[in-house]
From TrEMBL:
Superkingdom of source: Bacteria
Domain Cytoskeleton protein RodZ-like C-terminal: 210-279
Name this polypeptide is given: Helix-turn-helix domain-containing protein
Region of interest: Disordered: 159-200
Length: 291
């Protein structure tokens, strides 16, 4: 508390001093409230020494100093009410929670984000995986990858390999490990004049003749279904009647020699990335397969 001010009676309460000073000025409570822009209840509470109604100490001290200044009294009288070093009430926690509950509340939002992310990404990855395995030939396998060799239908005539490839027997082919056949623009195998069938053999053959000078993955279909499917080895030959084919796919097409009624058939117009896909008309004409 500050030292007594000159001309101020310390025996009189602070509120009574305020009321006496106001009455000496000839002003009413309403005039004082309007001058200080405060409710009359605050002015009346200060004059009745009911400073607790003014709220926190910082507000009570501010209202009191403003009133003292307006009345012309020393502002140091406000220190009799509240010292500057007074502190407000300390905050106390209203409730306590367990450590496990605090951990759950802190990580609940992260768990929700993780679940939402998984619910979006997992279906997207599944759809992408399924789409990547689709095959336009309905078998789920690329024409350029190795696969087990299919058995030749018993009803189809199979020409024996030429003398130049007589050494390549089924037993020898089975003893070797199958190698993957990949699409490439570089021709595989030897030249057609060295490994192809003889001119006499081709000239005496009617219909379609497929002679393989290298490994090739094939799928040959007829009007009634699939005729040939699988990996055909170097030196093998397949023959079909003129009206027996409807759709053909040849992987590693540079390793395949195709003849129709003894005449060579060019596949450049239906070849892309070393894979030929074409359809066959009843007249023996070929055209690109739209699939």
């Amino acid at each position: 508390m500050s030292q007594p001010e000159a001309g101020v009676d310390q025996q009189i309460s602070l509120g009574k001093q305020l009321r006496t000073a106001r009455e000496d000025r000839g002003d009413s409570l309403l005039v004082a409230a309007q001058a200080l822009k405060l409710p009359t209840s605050i002015i009346e509470s200060m004059e009745q020494d009911q400073f607790a109604r003014l709220g926190a100490p910082v507000y009570a001290r501010g209202h009191l100093r403003a009133y003292l200044r307006w009345l012309g009294l020393p502002e140091s009288l406000a220190e009799q009410l509240v010292a500057p070093s007074d502190e407000g009430p300390s905050l106390q926690p209203s409730m306590r929670i367990s450590r496990s509950r605090a951990w759950v509340e802190r990580n609940a939002l992260r768990a929700v984000y993780a679940v939402l992310t998984a619910s979006i990404l997992v279906p997207a990855l599944w759809v992408a995986t399924e789409r990547s395995g689709l095959d336009p030939w309905r078998n789920g396998r690329s024409l350029d990858e190795a696969a087990p060799s299919a058995q030749v239908p018993a009803a189809l005539p199979v020409a024996a390999p030429t003398s130049e490839h007589a050494s390549t027997t089924p037993a020898a082919a089975d003893s070797e490990a199958p190698l993957p056949v990949m699409a490439s623009m570089t021709p595989f195998g030897g030249s057609k004049t060295e490994q192809g069938p003889s001119a006499a053999t081709v000239a005496d053959t009617d219909g379609w003749t497929f002679h393989f000078i290298g490994d090739s993955w094939v799928e040959i279909e007829g009007p009634n279904g699939r005729l040939e499917y699988g990996l055909l080895r170097e030196g093998e030959t397949r023959q079909f009647a003129a009206n027996e084919l409807s759709r053909v796919a040849l992987g590693n097409v540079h390793a395949v020699e195709l003849h129709f009624d003894g005449e060579p058939v060019a596949l450049d117009s239906v070849t892309r990335a070393n894979v030929a896909r074409f359809t066959v008309s009843s007249a023996g004409e070929i055209s690109g397969d739209p699939r």
